[in-house]
Amino acid sequence: MRRLFPVTDQTVPTASGGRAGDPDDREWSLAELATAYAYPEPSAGGQRVPWLRANMVSTLDGAAQHDGKSQPISNATDMRIFGTLRALADVVVVGAETVRQEGYRPARARAEFAAARTAAGQAPAPAIAVVTASLDLDFSLPLFASPLVPTLVLTGAAAAAERVAEAEKAGARVVIAGDGMGVDPGRAVRALAELGHTRLLTEGGPRLLGQLVAAGVLDELCVTVSPMLTAGDAQRIAGGPSVPVPQRFALVSLLEEEGFLYGRYQRT
């Protein structure tokens, strides 16, 4: 993997056409990836404000999935970054449809990140927070029945009481983050922060990411551009109604390996 941006002495071409200290043939360590994707430091007073980042993958022609899953357009390095971003997060926010389609399982503790998570005051693994209006979920799945950290269910105040009770019976913690059936994105971020989860990561799906974008609560987008073309009618990484004015994000870093681009953008 090599860094294309920001430009450093390792990214500037040399007179011979190569690159000074070119790390193309070297696999980055997990520690290096963790540094490259570190969350913002707390404020001067030590206060850590919520920071919501998204991690998505897209083909050259804008498809976020192939045959309903993201795995066919991903690669091994994308999955290493995926795992690193999870290891840095307090909580992973995901939509119910993605849970069903991708067969979500609980996040696992990883020995490589254990010391760093302990030092940061984090649980051994991030919690999974499922956003759902209907609570139409199989609560017998390992995500709910046997997580290392209890799974959260984000829903609205008007959610069916019997489904809420079933979720709680399974061991999930139900968090009300909306006045009606659905979830208000801004309220969800605040509710998670009140639980001590300020390093937030969402892995979509596209409908949830679209809602977060429309609500103006997304701080950062980590996107892998896969050098593939799929055509078809697959969803983009963010769906739903368009925003009145396009939101501008700034490029923070850009990595490359075997044609895959790993970009990190933050809200300006």
Structural summary, described in words:
Helices cover 26% and strands 22% of the residues. The chain is α/β, with parallel strands linked by helices. It has a ten-stranded mixed sheet, with helices on both faces.
Q: Encode the helix/strand succession as letters.
A: EHEHEHHEHEHEHEHEEE
- Rg: 19 Å
The class by helix and strand makeup works out as: alpha/beta
Strand order of the largest sheet: 1-9-10-8-2-7-3-4-5-6
Q: What is the topology?
A:
Elements (H helix, E strand, L loop, with lengths): L1 E4 L24 H7 L14 E9 L16 H13 L2 E5 H7 L8 H9 L7 E5 L10 H4 L6 E4 L5 H9 L3 E4 L8 H10 L4 E4 L3 H10 L4 E7 L22 E9 L2 E8 L1
Parallel strand pairs: 2-7, 2-8, 3-4, 3-7, 4-5, 5-6
Antiparallel strand pairs: 1-9, 8-10, 9-10
Brief summary:
By secondary structure, the chain is α/β, with parallel strands linked by helices. The protein is 26% helix and 22% strand. A hairpin with a 2-residue loop joins β9 (249-257) and β10 (260-267).
For the structure shown, list the relevant keywords.
alpha/beta; single chain; ten-stranded mixed sheet; globular; 26% helix; 268 residues
